[in-house]
Amino acid sequence: MDFSQQVYQQNQTVWQESIHHPFIKKLSDGSMTLPTFRYYLIQDHYYLRDFARIHELAADASQDQAVKTLLQELANSLHDGEIATRKTFFKELGISQQDVVNTPIAPTTYAYTSHMYRTLTQAGAPAAIAGLLPCAWLYADVGASLQGVTSPVPIFQAWIDSYQSDDYTGPVAKQIKLTDQVARQTDATGRDAMTKAFSRSAYYERDFWQMALDHQDWQ
Ligand SMILES: Cc1ncc(C[n+]2csc(CCO)c2C)c(N)n1
Fold it and tell me: Which domain of life does the UniProt lineage start with (predicted)?
């Protein structure tokens, strides 16, 4: 069985807890408050900045030219895709640079991004690549689970729509393929590190939703 299918199956409990998380329910039924959505977007802004950076660092650390190129491509498509979408949301909700500066990175965002940097420095590019995978894959599944759902709040609907276009699902398939290719070129110890990196990211993805509902801070 491919590495991706194996870790996907192993992490279904936490995965399904994300898909059925109250955060997703509140987005789709419109009961989420705007301050919660704003909180999520600002934390996500911090997250995406590091997420893009880790692609670049993993590309630098990778020995394989094709892997390097694909990671760089994924990093570029982030700037045109997810990061650009966030900028539109910021504009629509009136979130300013000052609002971002005034909001510190919260513990779960800090832990999730630190986990990805740590994985890269301690276990290398293959594990870092596996740690990047749950992000896009989970959101594709969340998008699929929301197919046909119409949120009464237009900006929540825009968020849902952003995970349903082919522009989005194409890169996810590429990333799964890349991870499987890297896993095939890696020994058992490396694959074990990849497995751990994937599981930990899946865990932090679930906690990210809860962090936003709780408006988690450092108190
Ligand atoms: C915490 C968190 N996890 C996942 C995503 C989703 N996401 C991040 S980058 C990207 C594009 C393809 O890699 C997608 C879908 C997010 N925004 N925030």
Answer: Bacteria
